[in-house]
Amino acid sequence: MNSLQNKTYILKNKFELTIQEEELDVSNLLDNEIVGQTIYSCVSPGTELAAYQGFPPLRPGMQYPRLMGYCNVGKVIKVGSTSTGVSEGDVILTFTSHQKYFKIKANEVIAVLGRNIDYKLASAVYLFHLGYMATIESGAQPGMKVGVMGTGTLGYGTALLCNQFGFKTHVFSNQVYLQDELKADGISFSAKERIETQSYFNSFDIIINTSNSWEDWFLSMELLRKKGTMVNLGFPGRGLALPEINPLDSRFFYDKQLTLKSAGYVYDGEATVSDVQFSLKRNINYLLGLIAAGRLDPKRLISKEVKWEQLSELYDFLLIRGTRKFTGILNWTENA
């Protein structure tokens, strides 16, 4: 095996998604390199659909062209001479983009998957990770009253985790078609425009805000009790005009002595647990364990599965609002 005919998704400009074909040289691997073949890749809708639509980038720099995707489950088909922890035939989770084959360093493998887990479901595990980090950053404890603002993929997954961890979970969303299934799980639900001030304001220990809108930012502050904590998973104001009210207005931030946090960064190295408790790989393996045990169900996030050639169609499907849609899966197997 000297080379492989690779197929990689490249976004050249907004709505201009292409498949780039090129030879991937695998003849002389570095000692610590491995080669994999993708089985499933999962769409990270917040990141990918924003880029697909041409939303402003989060950081300065070249916006296009760019690779798309980072939730990949593949099979190891070749290993370098000193690669450790990974063997040919292993099925692995990596941050590889949507592409047929990949060549990475062995230490870039996030997890080696056992046979006790559905590989398709495992490809979606990272969609729960930011919500998991938000619960850690918030300091939430069982019995605390935790609100989740928004029920996109990130918010919905976060609500499932909060409920799993024993918090008094309450979702605020205008996607009212989700309320019955969430209430069946024991998760309270309120449509944002129907909130009664006396019933909900000043009562939440924690709000996990997954929204970009300024309206939801201010609503989150109203909902929090004194000394409450808001953890932001969204990007307040992204692509929007500046609000008329100061986002740090003293009646919220000072009078209520709120704590505002962001969540997302996680140590991705190989430190021991005695030095770093919550590392990327440990977190992902913990969440994979919840999935394997049936305590966390990614099927509830997967709205559609398509053949690998149909990523554009999958993006267009996910962009249609008003019905229950979260993420989708690309199937890269020959018999898909």
From TrEMBL:
- The signal peptide here is none
Keyword tags:
Oxidoreductase
Does the record's keyword annotation contain Cell membrane? no
Q: Which organism is it from?
A: Rufibacter radiotolerans
**Designated name of the protein:** Uncharacterized protein
Q: Which GO terms describe its molecular function?
A: oxidoreductase activity
PANTHER family associated with the record: ZINC-TYPE ALCOHOL DEHYDROGENASE-LIKE PROTEIN C1198.01, ZINC-TYPE ALCOHOL DEHYDROGENASE-LIKE PROTEIN C1198.01-RELATED
UniProt KW Oxidoreductase keyword: yes
Q: Which domain of life is it from?
A: Bacteria
